[in-house]
Amino acid sequence: MSKKYYVLISLGIVILSLVVFTLFLNRSPGKTLNLKWKIYSVVPDINPIYREGMEKFIEDVKMMTDGQITIEYIPSGEKENIDPIKVFDAVSKGEAEMGFGSSLYWAADQIPGNNFMYTIPFGLNSRDMYAWLTIGRGLELLREIYVPYNVVPFPIGDTGGAMGGWFNRAIKNIDNFINLRIRQRSFSKKIFKKLGATIDEITAAQNSLAAFEDKRIDAIIVLGPYTDMKFSLHKGPRYYYYPGWQEPCGVLSLIINKNEWDELPENFKKIFEIACDKTYYYILDRFNTSNSAAFIELQKQGVKFMEFPPAVLDKFREYTNEVLEEEARKNTQFAEIYRSFRDFKENKSDSGWDRIVQEAVYSETTVLKFKKELQDISTVGRVYQRGNKNVVISLSGDASFNQGSAEPSKTLKDKVPNIAKLINENSISIRTILVEGHTDNRGSTFNNWRLSRVRAIKVVELLVRNGINDLLIRPVFYGDTCPINDNKTHANRRLNRRVEIVIEF
């Protein structure tokens, strides 16, 4: 074979290599794409967490695509993004490539099951919700209901658990919701309507305080302490209720026009998914941290945190289940999403596993801290921990009661205001306060039992006088191993005579 022939073959290989390399370059997203997209947000630029989260998302996408996709974030009310209600339509029609916010703004009443892309009363917490969306079938099912609208949704953030809302009067029973005017947009509005409340879906969060002051609404439900403080809601209604049964999480969505999405190379699609995943937990962690700080600040400012009565929460739960079943009967898509959501919750969230693995951590971070602070201010009795969730003040001797009587000592009276202040600062974490009267077998058993009983009642009265909510306190009178009453015989009891304040977390 001639030298000339080898040269021709070599030249052919070089030319073929150049052709292949050129084709590779032309297929490379870094060389062929130069996209400039916009995100229309339904959120005004008041709370910085939203913008910070989206700016991180934009930065991640730009970096991972080597600068071939640049994105502009436009908050609600700025430039051409005037009406948050129109964001979904703008993305659906291709007027904007992307939209950001909660599915409350995505034609919620017209798309069956759409609320599952945000939150469901008594549903999943933020981390379990993300697990259902990504590991369970949640996102797969929800994307199906968006197909007719030419939109692809992604979870991209979470506002965390909400508070139960601000009210102009104390909620004592379920009848208090009759004719109550509530500013609310989430799925729970259906439950409130069943209770006889009037729903305001028009008032924006930033205008809620003005609406309350003008007596157009009686109650405001927005989010948690941090966001509510941003809107100065603590300057209006008197009562701030928990738990936030109506919004145990608050998923934020990124919606992308399907035509634009389909044009992206597969590796760029994966980049978007990775960036959304990272942003979800960044926003969630920012909200949780900010809510914790705002919660402490609101307590310092004297905000009255109130817990919904158990009977009211039971009614909320009953009506929530009724509404979910009603919606499932109306629409097969809703029913399928609901079954998936419910099954995931029963198998994961309701299994008890989370409670078991978190109990020791809860004790370490909450109960031990409370015990240490209590020991620092209390000299009236021994302070100790009972199990993982109880802190006990054991009151006995002259430091707590005048000798031989039921009258609290001056030392106890002087210390109770500080003890009560510490309890009130932690009241949102405290389930109940037991004031236990115990007897012994010295002297007259009956007199010892009667004395401990009266002492316990005196301690209850002292706590209430110093601002402890009497609904938190329950007096208990003990024999050997069980509560005793006036009709039982106590002659053979062998017990310590003391009163114990048991704070249960």
What is the CATH class of the largest domain? Alpha Beta
Tell me the helix content: 40-55%
Uncertain parts:
3-11, 13-30, 480-496
**How many domains in all?**
4
Give a written overview of the molecule.
With 505 residues, this protein is of the alpha/beta class. It has 4 domains: 1-28; 29-159 and 252-286, D-Maltodextrin-Binding Protein, domain 2; 165-245 and 305-356, Periplasmic binding protein-like II (D-Maltodextrin-Binding Protein, domain 2), CATH 3.40.190; 360-504, 60s Ribosomal Protein L30, Chain: A. The chain is 46% helix and 16% strand. It has 16 helices and 16 strands. The strands form 3 sheets. The protein has a 6-stranded mixed sheet. Strands 2-1-3-10-4 form a 5-stranded mixed sheet. α3 (48-64) packs antiparallel against α11 (266-300), α6 (138-146) packs antiparallel against α13 (332-349) and α12 crosses α13 (332-349). The longest helix is centred in the middle third of the chain and has 35 residues, at 266-300. The N and C termini lie far apart (91 Å).
Provide a short characterization of the protein structure.
The protein is α/β, with parallel strands linked by helices. The protein is built from 16 helices and 16 strands. The protein has a six-stranded mixed beta sheet with strand order 7-6-8-5-9-11. A five-stranded mixed beta sheet has the order 2-1-3-10-4. Strands 12-13-16-14-15 form a five-stranded mixed beta sheet, with helices on one face.
